[in-house]
């Protein structure tokens, strides 16, 4: 009798070519194609209601809304930083002269990084005159140092990052009672083309 062999199914040769992975869209790719658009007060209002909307009541959200009188004209991308500041606070010399409070600043500039803070400090030379500017970011500067400086001296302008400013306010190192202006560095984009408000931690 002839022997019966079970035929083995032929092994398919594994293809060495891997299937192409779909390239994930990065925020920088999307932003690269969009034209720079100056920020407007409505952008901040929308951001606040988005951020607080999930865990606040309708009344609480209503209280968070800032009236139009809280806002100064935004930079329409035609101004340098100094010329923009001159336009929005023409009485700066008087404000600066009258400011004598410690632990506080008249103007608070908030931007996304320490490097950007230094850039802005350099670019406001024409505006600030001889007033004192304090760096409010974490890079190479301990929070205790900043608190000591605020306690001992009178500073007119503070330029820093959201994280450090928040920490100083929470630890009672920075008092906002005499702050007249808060400038958000809204239009500037970093290397990844993100604005400050595109960074989730902010």
From TrEMBL:
Domain of life: Eukaryota
UniProt-listed PANTHER family: PROTEIN CMSS1
Protein name: CMS1 protein
One Pfam family per UniProt: CMS1
Species of origin: Heliornis fulica (sungrebe)
Region described as Disordered: spans on this chain: 1-38
Cellular component aspect of the GO annotation: 90S preribosome; nucleus
